[in-house]
Specification:
Chain A: Pfam families: CT_A_B. The complex is a heterodimer of chains A (297) and B (230). Chain A is mainly β. Chain A is built from 3 helices and 20 strands. The model of chain A has no long low-confidence stretch (mean pLDDT 94). Chain B contains 5 helices and 13 strands. Classes of the chains: A mainly beta (297), B alpha+beta (230).
Chain lengths: 297, 230
């Protein structure tokens, strides 16, 4: 009788358990959390026949290595990388059968940031408020993986994968983020609103699961003073006192006191999860962005 | 679809039952409703909860804050509550005021032994023991949560000067610490850095994710602090 579990041989820089997150608790101060690149996480789950809400592993830049204690079907997606089983190269972005006690190595990202590893049955750690996601802001959910840890797997899925491979978009050379005006756009000068949508920013190395931080021209405020705390949403572009926009990602705080100049469309955030530091970011105003001749997008 | 129309604030304040509000756009699925003050935000929050429970409103998150209420995860493009449609409907709602006192008040036992008790007493210009009396005489209401799971911002302390945050935040405030900052009282659900002035401590578990509900305090909860050993 084999054990439905896997051992972590190399945890990598930051590997967390992620699923669709725990929305619905923001009023209690609980972030939504969940996979940053939802598209990639959903694809790898499909490839191994898991339901969409199964928990996967999210790696950061340098992959991880695992040793399943039972034979299991896995799929690696997201940031492209070399994948091996006991040293032999296997397919990336496709279902791969890993024998019991074999070593699955997910290599460093060739491009992009976050890799996703789905294992048949999903990572079956105890859910917290209905989700197995690691939330790095509030500490809910399982801790990030550590070398030597052993994590449980759920029952192998009965459904067969409907697809053998799926096209996955490559990480962006330039990150295009479409932005609708935020609740506090009027806290910024007209030139600042033009600056945001016409000048190039770059992804800062200080970015994490909480927010995509940027380097670039600071945005000048038209209204001084402090904003009382207000609710925040995924994709909100908060502007702290240094004027550099921060795009809120899955582990963002539920309330905040810096003005939100705009909100990035949710479907553009998967690409944001894969943008390495230094990537050029272009914010494109849509949906009534001040100064646009007509509505677009 | 956009919520452009909502960007120009529909102001309406001609009758007492329709408080002035600005309905602000916040992305494709959300609206931020700004009220005149925290009391109006609390009344709107209660009305939103009532309508959601009655099935009249489809929304995933209702997040009150200092003087706003965020509605996030509004119905799909064909649903009844797109941001655009709701933005048009909201200012026409009649919003009943909150009852002044509640029947259901949560009591939290406190030891008034915080390290900033003397500073708060000095600011209030009262003897140290008077801080406990003033604080435990008030009825609080959780205006909103944030900062950490289970951390509530409680309003209700009147008649004393607002306490500023400490100039230098502490790197570690113990779980259960009861603190003051600005118009708010709060209890730290777990050890964390913090800049609030600490007046006491409690053994109450503010957050326990194995418990249902996990959070002791939710927006709208009425609270009284009861000095231990009395």
């Amino acid at each position: 009788m084999t054990d439905r579990a896997f051992a972590v041989v190399r945890a990598g820089a930051l590997t967390t358990v992620q699923d669709e997150g725990r929305p619905g608790h923001a009023h209690l101060g609980v972030p939504r959390s969940g996979a940053l690149d939802r598209t990639a996480a959903a694809l790898v789950n499909r490839l191994v026949g898991n339901p969409a809400d199964a928990a996967v592993l999210e790696t950061t830049l340098n992959g991880c290595a695992l040793r399943p204690r039972c034979a299991v079907t896995v799929a690696v997606g997201g940031a492209p990388c070399r994948v091996t089983v006991d040293g032999r190269a296997v397919a990336w972005g496709a279902p791969v059968r890993v024998p019991a006690d074999a070593l699955l190595e997910v290599g460093p990202a060739v491009s992009g940031v976050r890799g996703y590893v789905a294992l048949g049955g999903g990572v079956a750690v105890e859910p917290v408020l209905g989700s197995r996601s690691t939330d790095l802001l509030s500490g809910l959910g399982p801790p990030p993986l550590t070398d030597g840890a052993v994590l449980p797997l759920g029952a192998a899925p009965v459904a067969h994968a409907r697809v053998d491979t799926v096209p996955q978009p490559g990480p962006p050379r330039e990150l295009i983020l479409r932005v609708t005006p935020g609740p506090r756009a009027d806290w910024f000068t007209a030139p600042a609103l033009r600056t945001l949508t016409t000048r190039a920013y770059r992804v800062s190395s200080a970015s994490n699961r909480i927010g995509l931080r940027t380097d670039g021209p600071p945005l000048e405020r038209a209204v001084g003073g402090e904003l009382p705390s207000e609710g925040m949403v995924l994709g909100a572009i908060q502007v702290p006192p240094d004027g550099r926009p921060v795009v809120f990602l899955a582990d963002h705080p539920t309330t905040g006191g810096y003005p939100v100049v705009g909100v990035v469309r949710e479907r553009d955030l998967a690409a944001a999860a894969q943008a390495v530091p230094g990537t050029v970011v272009r914010f494109v105003g849509v949906g009534g962005w001040p100064g646009l001749g007509s509505e677009r997008g | 679809m956009s919520v452009r129309a909502a960007a120009s604030p529909p102001m309406s304040g001609d009758t007492p039952s329709t408080p002035p509000m600005r309905v602000l756009p916040m992305g494709e699925r959300a609206l931020l409703v700004e009220l005149a003050d925290g009391t109006a935000a609390a009344a709107l929050h209660a009305e939103l909860l009532r309508r959601r429970a009655a099935g009249d409103l489809v929304v995933r998150e209702i997040v009150p804050a200092a003087r706003t209420v965020l509605l996030d995860g509004l119905g799909g493009p064909d649903g009844p509550d797109t941001p655009l449609r709701l933005a048009a409907r909201l200012p026409t709602w009649e919003i009943p005021p909150l009852p002044a006192r509640a029947d259901d008040v949560l009591e939290i036992p406190v030891r008034y032994d915080g390290p900033d008790l003397a500073d708060v007493a000095a600011l209030w210009d009262v003897p140290v023991r008077e801080v406990a009396r003033v604080h435990s005489a008030a009825e609080f209401r959780v205006a909103f949560c944030g900062f950490a799971p289970g951390f509530g911002y409680l309003t209700g302390l009147g008649g004393v000067p607002e306490v500023p945050r400490r100039a230098t935040p502490r790197t570690a405030v113990p779980a259960g610490s009861v603190g003051l900052a600005g118009p708010y009282t709060g209890v730290y659900p777990r050890s964390s850095p913090g800049g609030w002035q600490l007046i006491g401590s409690t053994d109450a578990l503010l957050w326990d994710h194995a418990r249902v509900p996990a959070a002791l305090l939710a927006p709208g909860t009425r609270v009284r602090f009861v000095p231990e050993g009395r």
